[in-house]
Amino acid sequence: MTTPKDAAEFERVACEAAALAGAVLRRRFRETHLKVESKGLHDYVTAVDREAEDAAVGFIRARFPGHVIMSEEGSPEAERAEHRWVIDPLDGTTNFIHGVTPFSVSVALEDSEGPVAGAILDPVHDETFRASRGNGSFCNDERIRVSEIGSGDGALLATGFPFRELSRLDRYLESLEAFARSTAGIRRAGSAAIDLARTACGRYDGFWEIGLSRWDISAGVLIVREAGGIVTDPLGTQTELESGDIVAAGPEIHRFMLEVTRRAFS
């Protein structure tokens, strides 16, 4: 069992690892002649992803040599262990390649009960969203809370297009249309980690997406929950880390969002 004191120490390490990776991203943002490789359909990687990952992973391995590390570029299949770090060194690679924002670093530690500590760094705005189990969520040094809005009226939602889940595009588009008709607006920023961080601090009232990877959302799931939010999959079960399908919001609007996503994805 991870104690709150242990969790706070893991949170500090997550923040430091994210800062090291973020320093790489700041230094190389809008670099000319950036070499881009394709990993799959609409899925890209650059030398910057790998350099940022090396910075974060190297720091964590030196601090906790016995821990397992799951990282997008280096070891995406790392199995669950007593302590497993889950790292995305550059969430929003397509944005980064095109010289636009946002993009982020996401670092989380999981134990047998799920995410226990996490940090999401927005290197452009110098914001670190962070949390540890039982200790609340913060943006830099300010405690954050999810939105208290209770319905779709006036709500601003965030989403991401399922570019790797085109076989389910029709169901996603059904949910998109329903939310477009019943909320104040929808934003697609291009970084799921940033979307979750902004949901945790109430800038967005809620977020939904399908087809994500564990490293995209592990830190964000914890940060939203520690900020008073609810995180499930679109059917209302807590399988989001395994499925990559997620709905995250404050308690009241989360119920409203599930009414839509259950119809679309059932």
Backbone structural class: alpha+beta
Report the strand count. Answer: 14
Q: Roughly how much helix do the residues carry, as a percent range?
A: 25-40%
The CATH homologous superfamily of the largest domain is called: Fructose-1,6-Bisphosphatase, subunit A, domain 1
Largest sheet: 7 strands, mixed
Count every helix, treating DSSP H or I runs of 4 or more residues as helices.
8
Mean pLDDT: 93
Rg over alpha carbons:
17 Å
Give the number of domains.
2
Order of strands across the widest beta sheet? 3-4-5-6-7-8-9
Q: Order of helices and strands, N to C?
A: HEEHEEHEEEEEEHEHEHEHEH
- Which CATH class of the largest domain? Alpha Beta
Low-confidence stretches: none
CATH topology of the largest domain: Fructose-1,6-Bisphosphatase, Chain A, domain 1
Distance between the termini: 35 Å
Describe the structure.
- The chain has eight helices and 14 strands.
- It is α+β, with helices and mostly antiparallel strands.
- The chain folds into two domains: 140 residues, 2-Layer Sandwich (Fructose-1,6-Bisphosphatase, Chain A, domain 1), CATH 3.30.540.10; 110 residues, D-Maltodextrin-Binding Protein, domain 2 (3-Layer(aba) Sandwich).
- A seven-stranded mixed beta sheet has the order 3-4-5-6-7-8-9.
- Helix 4 packs across helix 8.
- The chain is globular and about 50 Å long.
